[in-house]
Amino acid sequence: TKLTLADAVRDVLTKPLDINWIDSLSADFFEIGISAILNDSRRRCVPAESVFELLEEAYKVGRTGPKLKALYAEQLWLRGRLGEASGVLEQMSAPSNIQSKCDALKGAIAFLSGDTEGAIAHYKKGLKASGKSQRAQVEWFQHPATLLYFFALLQVGSTETLKEAEKHVLLIQRNTDHWLTPTAPVLFAVIQQQQSKQTAGAQRFSQYKLSSVGLVALLETYCLHWLQIDDIEAWMSLQLPWQCQQLTTSGYHWLALEMTQLLVSYQPESPFAKQTETLRRKINSIPLVDIVERKEAWERSLDALTALAGPSANEPPPLSLEPTYRLIW
């Protein structure tokens, strides 16, 4: 793996971690260091509380530029402080490359607040601002908050939104180094199923292994839940407890909430049940578990047959405009 400047700075600043030293850095290296540490924390879901608190203090005293403000809003979202995240975004102005990330964050917060229409509008604005080329749009999906764009499109579930989701997944799947590439096949299967294009194919994911922890795992897990793979309850019981535990200790409370909520839906007596109730009251976001309607196997089969038959299968043939003739004997 190629070592980037951010990786090198992170290693220097965290081995060992010295908050006072980070605080004394020049503005440029402070930004690079804080970003590198918190982005790594988000990717691996490891605690970085003291660095987050340093960023929070820097924001309060006006020491943050647009990039760090966007990072602060992102951290607030993942930590379940949606109102504060929204306030940061509303008060900041940013150049276009950072504004497109802010639009994605606004979309995520609107969606979690129950405003799906507003969320999609923010996402479309951010996608448009990212550029017209496919490469630029795929790059926009590198922003973590764009993950919830797929949830919003699935929740609407119209022909238009499902085709929109399908288009973006196919573009992402062609980029081997994209963070969402591992999730593309299972997400695509959900989109296909929602369009009644696929029934039995989903079972190829029955031995699925999560590719990581955090946002990617969240999307993968919910997709498997919606697909209703074989022995899904046993799979959840095996895969989710350690994910829930790591998310809980990481400080990313919104992520922890949505993962524990899914586990509790299969195991109501889970030790995480009380935590889920407490976090839901505190964060007050919509539950992701309810946004896609799960259907029984026979319902999915019926939908697929209906789709194959076409919309006109039960309609009478159209009247012919050709003249009719009658033989006279």
Task: Describe the model.
This protein is mainly alpha-helical and 329 residues long. Helices cover 65% and strands 0% of the residues. Helix 3 packs parallel to helix 5 (66-78), helix 5 runs antiparallel to helix 6 and helix 14 (232-250) runs antiparallel to helix 15. The termini are far apart. The model is unreliable at 312-329 (pLDDT under 50).
End-to-end separation in angstroms reads 88 Å
Q: How would the global form be characterised?
A: globular
Overall pLDDT: 89
Elements, N to C (H/E) = HHHHHHHHHHHHHHHHH
User: How many beta strands in the DSSP annotation?
Assistant: 0
Count of discrete alpha- or pi-helical segments spanning 4 or more residues = 17
| Backbone structural class | mainly alpha
Helix content: 55-70%
Gist of the model:
With 329 residues, the chain is mostly helical. Helix content is 65%, strand content 0%.
Can you lay out the helices and strands and say which pair or pack?
Elements: H1 5-14, H2 19-23, H3 27-44, H4 49-60, H5 66-78, H6 82-91, H7 96-112, H8 116-130, H9 134-140, H10 147-156, H11 159-173, H12 184-194, H13 215-227, H14 232-250, H15 253-266, H16 273-283, H17 297-309
List keywords for this structure.
329 residues; disordered C terminus; globular; mainly alpha; 65% helix
